[in-house]
Amino acid sequence: MRNINWIVAGLLLLSIYACSNKKSEKQEDLKEVPVLTVQKKDTLVSGEYVTEIEAKKNIEVHSRIAGLLQKVAVHEGQFVHQGQLLFKISDSELQLDLLKANASYKQSLAEVKIAEVEVNQLQSLYNKKFVAKNELDMVKAKLSAAHAKSEFADAEKKAVLQKIAYTNIRAPFDGVINNIPIKEGSLVENGILLTTLSQLTEVFAYFSIPEDMYFEMMKDGELDPTTKIELVLPNGSKYDFHGVLNNAEGEIDRATGTLRYKVAFPNPDRYIKHGSSGKLIISEQQPNAILIPTKATFSIQDKVYVFVVDKNNKVKMQNIIVGSTLSNSYLIESGLKPGDRIVLEGTQALRDGQIIKIKK
Q1: pLDDT digit string (tens) for 276-298?
Q2: Which structural domains are found in the chain, ordered by start?
Q3: What is the pTM of this model?
């Protein structure tokens, strides 16, 4: 009987040991993953946009008259002031035309003077009833014709003077001269491109946003004009000055479905040139934002999920709505609240409802 008791006791101990060992092995089999507690905090949200840079003013300088390019008074890359002479087209033939126009004008003035004397004489005789009214009307008509001829001659003179003025091409504003394709001595045609002039004291950086983003923004109002805007140059360096956001264009580009904005940057040293490219970084302060690392998420059929960990360390798939994408994080619009615990990494090896071990 004693032997039987010892046997039963031994089997019982063996059973307890097996269960304990099994439980220990099960505990050791739990997946150990890091867990993040979701919190709200003020976050600086930045977006990057490719930009094309244009001068505040950039115009083409054309000839307004045909002739021989007598002088190129500037060189490429030169800074010029408003009114400064850029090009001189020969006006020798026009000067001869001006002499003729002046002579015609003076002759017309003399004819006016003669006609006025005749009118005065006949008016005196008519008042004394020595001549008929039709004779007075004839000299008055002759005076009117002389005035018309004088006005025509004056107009021709001014037209020649205007053409002479066109031979002096001057800068319409302060700016930098660009390429000069025509050289001195060339015969230029009316309307030919002589150069372009850029006003670089201020530049505009243009960028586009999708149509749906524009209407999403309009829910809360336009972009804040005080938003921090930085310009990254093609060599990767940041420009010294911040930009100021200007209004959007009045229409959406049907071909691309985008709306174009522009940002004004001061350019006192004329460092940035017309036609440059770069990248805009637009940053806004987002108060009480929920931000989680992208590595804590996974996607199924275009939807983004996380694993939420409950008080029993069981994971559950949770769909989240992403507002903005930062460098390595998502700004969450909905789906999570402060205090929620989510799996930080290793989501690919987990399944919904699985119990995990939290990695310390």
Answers
A1: 999 998 887 778 889 899 999 99
A2: 29-42+288-358 (2.40.420.20), 47-56+198-286 (2.40.30.170), 91-166 (1.10.287.470)
A3: 0.67
